[in-house]
Write a structure and sequence with these properties.
Blueprint: E1 6-10, H1 15-27, E2 32-35, H2 43-48, E3 57-60, E4 63-66, H3 68-78, H4 90-106, H5 108-116, H6 119-140, H7 153-158, H8 165-172, H9 176-179, H10 181-190, H11 194-197, H12 203-216
Parallel strand pairs: 1-2
Antiparallel strand pairs: 1-3, 3-4
């Protein structure tokens, strides 16, 4: 679309921001990336997301779109002529949205618990995290992507988590691949896509960020 303005308000290394970057890359959309400092939020962020005051925010021709999954769906609808992320079949689309929502509701609390807690609480978080991943692994089955042969919404929703696996494993002293080999194989397959490899944060940089957060929150 000629003459359009696309801006992404993001923060490093937010998994939710990575989703949007992947979707924009899949569509070949050129955009301006503005990294936010959440300890000193910009006036633009406060203006564009006055309710939650959080990233990511996609600003398309001056209008804000909020919440990562909603943004990804918006991107898919606006730039619909290339690499569709949602199935055209209504039932398959509903199923994809269910699993994307499942990821949002179930994955991130135990994931945070792995690095933000210790002792019995951390062990419980690790157990719950692996249980959730096994459910997702069951849904993936033998398919290359969650949607079958096509990279889509559920893949976009989940793959940013892979960039945090090293941090989870190091903080929690466990190995995800030994318990969820098919899911890790799926992640490595997704990483072969330029849209993914260029959008995900470096795992060691993510770990450095986690160490900073642990220190900031007094978790040792």
């Amino acid at each position: 679309m000629a003459g359009e303005e696309v801006i992404l308000l993001s923060v490093y290394p937010s998994m939710f921001s990575m989703r949007v970057r992947i979707a924009l890359a899949e569509k070949g959309v050129k955009y301006e990336l503005k990294e936010e400092d959440l300890t000193n939020k910009s006036l633009l962020l406060l203006e564009m997301n006055p309710v939650h005051k959080k990233v990511p925010v996609l600003i398309h021709n001056g209008k804000p779109i909020l919440e990562s999954l909603i943004i990804v769906q918006y991107i898919d609808e606006v730039w619909h002529d290339k690499n569709p992320l949602e199935p055209s079949d209504p039932y398959e689309r509903a199923q994809a949205r269910f699993w994307a929502d499942f990821i949002d509701k179930k994955v991130f609390d135990p994931a945070r618990g792995i690095w933000a807690t210790k002792g019995e609480e951390q062990e419980a978080a690790k157990k719950e995290f692996i249980e959730i991943l096994k459910i997702l692994e069951g849904e993936l089955g033998e398919k290359p992507y969650f949607g079958g042969e096509t990279f889509g919404l559920v893949d976009v929703a989940l793959i940013p988590l892979y960039s945090w696996f090293y941090a989870f494993e190091t903080c929690g002293n466990f190995k995800i691949e030994s318990q969820c080999p098919k899911l890790v194989a799926w992640a490595k397959f997704c990483m072969q896509r330029e849209s993914v490899s260029q959008s995900l944060s470096d795992p060691h940089s993510v770990y450095d960020t986690v160490l900073f957060l642990k220190k900031m929150f007094g978790i040792e």
